[in-house]
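Project standup — Tuesday

K.O.: blocked on the structure for the chain from last sprint. Re-posting the sequence here as requested.
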Amino acid sequence: MAKENITARSKDYSQWYLDIVEQAGMSEPSGVRGCMIIKPHGYAIWEFIVSALDARIKATGHVNAYFPLLIPKSYLMKEADHVEGFAPEVAEVTRGGGKELEEPLVIRPTSETIIGVSFARWVRSWRDLPLLINQWANVMRWEMRTRPFLRTAEFLWQEGHTAHATEEQAEEETLKVLTEVYADMVENVMAIPVHRGLKTKNETFPGALRTYAIEAMMQDGKALQAGTSHNLGQNFAKAFEIKYASESGTEEFAWTTSWGVSTRLIGALIMCHSDDDGLVLPPALAPVQVVIVPIMRGSDEDKAKVLQACRDLTAGWAGKIRFKLDDRDNEQFGYKVNEWEVKGVPVRIEIGPKDIEKGTVVLARRDRPGKEGKSFVPQEGLADTVLALLDEIQTTLYQRALKFREEHTFDAATYEELKEKVENGFVRAYFDGDSEDEKRIQEETKATVRVIPFDQPSEPGLCIVSGRSTNQQVIFARSY
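H.V.: unblocked you, prediction finished:
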């Protein structure tokens, strides 16, 4: 683990990302292409993401359940658009117990089908609605080009599935999850600003009526889809016979939704905040918020005094601050400092014999590397000082990412401007083109409509392709 093993972003952004994943101990390859081993540091970050999301999911009335990894292939075949959309990514099990299976089993790429079968059993009356279910699981999609966390054959995620009596209720649910669960967590815990909006038909989830998404900007100006929420209409309800008896006694098909985020969020975290020295973690998400690195020189007695001072200073911190005392005696001070910087710990406290005499400590903040981020502070009231600093770092990281996005977002009045400006970030433009226009733009610029933002301009403009007047503005970007 060494900073010199991290490629500079300006030299090779893709390699920089891979170097941080490796040097910060996030993950490593397994014996199966596209399947990664998530190492303890990476998994600890995922656990904090899970905790933050799970609390918000439950606060909006959902309950957790679990559905099988293996799905009968006949289930998948019931919804034609869904099958067509996922066909290239599906992995099948055809043998079990040394024998050919009567029916192939699909390793779930997502669970709409098997959950649809269950919902058909569980929903009988309008009194059973809304049905609000979430599951934490792993899924398998046979990706051809993989990259740790961003695009892997197997990944961890949550997937919510709900059933409602009306389209309006399903739509309200879809938007609530996008804003009150996903956008709220990503912005306030991960400190990543996101655009909220509707996806175009080309980008709509297979079989869905509408797909909504949150989109974030990475430090190379590309977009990363950080979460999606789908109004499935009645497509899956009709395919799986999810019916209910209404209050008036008529038999109606339910309206369903599905929504999910995955370990891809860890990739977003790395690419939004980190620097050439390694990982940078927002305090709200950091497994270790503060590391105390004692400067142990001199006699054993001097070392013991420093360690005792560290323990005295952190007495009462448990439950308030997630901290670690690095009291290893088999590693040099410089090695420890380097390790915790690469791992992205938000605050480092350094204390040695001279600091004990002066009644001070050195505070080093990870979001400001080098001398700029270091300060001497009194030992008295240190916990309050640290808590205030953690809040400040959380805000600073969000504001820094927001400023970067604003500085790399451009307006285009013509198609030629779009081609030029999309090289450097997001591009806002008026657009009323169809799917063929989108495909042509993607072929010529490698950019797609990432989102049709909820916030639209008050005045109409001219579409950059057709020249027609339109009230719709979209965000184009290249993406992961």
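K.O.: great, moving the ticket to review. The mean pLDDT is 95. The first helix runs from residue 13 to 23.
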